[in-house]
C-alpha cells in the first residue's frame, strides 16, 4: 500500500506538471487541473462517479474565464495600452455584450478583453486539454481500481 501511495502521488505530480506546462504553452491564466473541479487534492478514495466528461469539465473552465477581472484604473490602462491601444477590440466586445457607452470604463473594457483572450487561449488548447484530461481519467480509474482491491 505504501508503494502504491508513492506511485499515485508521483503520477499526480507528473499530471500536475503537464497541466501547468499546457497552461504556460497557451498562456492560460485560469487553473485547468481537473481535481480542482472534481474532488479535493487528498481524496484518492472518491467514487469515480464524481468525474465529469470532458465537455462538462471544459464548460467549467469556460465559466471560470468570466471570473477574471481587471481592477484599478492603472492596471486597466496598462493592459489596454499593451493589448488594444485603439480600444477597437474591447469596444467591439462591449457592443456585442450589449453595454451602453455610459456603462463603459477602462476597468470594464480591460476585463472584457482579458476574458475574451483567456477564452480564446482555452479554445486554442482544447485538443491538448482533452488529451490530458483523458489521461487524468485513466489515472482516476486506476486509483479507484487499486483502492477497491
How would you portray this structure in words?
With 149 residues, the protein is mainly α. It has 7 helices and no strands. It is elongated, with a radius of gyration of 19 Å. 69% of the residues lie in helices and 0% in strands. The protein has one domain. Helix 5 packs across helix 6.
Return Rg in Å.
19 Å
Please indicate the count of domains: 1
Q: Helical proportion?
A: 55-70%
Shape, please? elongated
End-to-end span in angstroms?
A: 11 Å
Low-confidence stretches: 37-48
Total number of beta strands: 0
Q: Topology as H/E string? A: HHHHHHH
Strand content range: under 5%
Mean pLDDT: 85
Counting DSSP H or I runs of 4 or more residues, the number of helices is 7
Structural classification? mainly alpha
Please summarize the sheet with the most strands: none
Short description:
The chain is mostly helical and 149 residues long. 69% of the residues lie in helices and 0% in strands. It has one domain (2-148).
Amino acid at each position: 500500500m505504501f508503494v502504491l501511495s508513492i506511485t499515485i502521488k508521483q503520477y499526480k505530480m507528473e499530471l500536475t506538471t503537464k497541466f501547468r506546462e499546457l497552461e504556460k504553452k497557451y498562456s492560460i491564466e485560469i487553473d485547468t487541473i481537473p481535481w480542482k473541479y472534481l474532488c479535493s487534492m487528498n481524496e484518492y478514495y472518491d467514487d469515480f462517479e464524481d468525474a465529469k466528461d470532458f465537455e462538462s469539465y471544459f464548460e467549467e473552465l469556460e465559466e471560470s474565464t468570466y471570473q477574471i477581472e481587471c481592477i484599478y484604473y492603472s492596471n486597466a490602462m496598462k493592459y489596454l495600452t499593451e493589448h488594444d491601444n485603439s480600444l477597437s477590440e474591447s469596444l467591439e466586445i462591449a457592443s456585442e455584450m450589449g453595454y451602453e457607452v455610459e456603462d463603459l470604463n477602462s476597468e470594464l473594457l480591460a476585463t472584457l478583453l482579458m476574458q475574451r483572450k483567456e477564452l480564446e487561449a482555452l479554445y486554442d488548447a482544447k485538443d491538448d486539454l482533452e488529451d490530458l484530461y483523458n489521461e487524468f481519467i485513466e489515472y482516476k480509474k486506476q486509483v479507484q481500481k487499486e483502492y477497491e482491491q
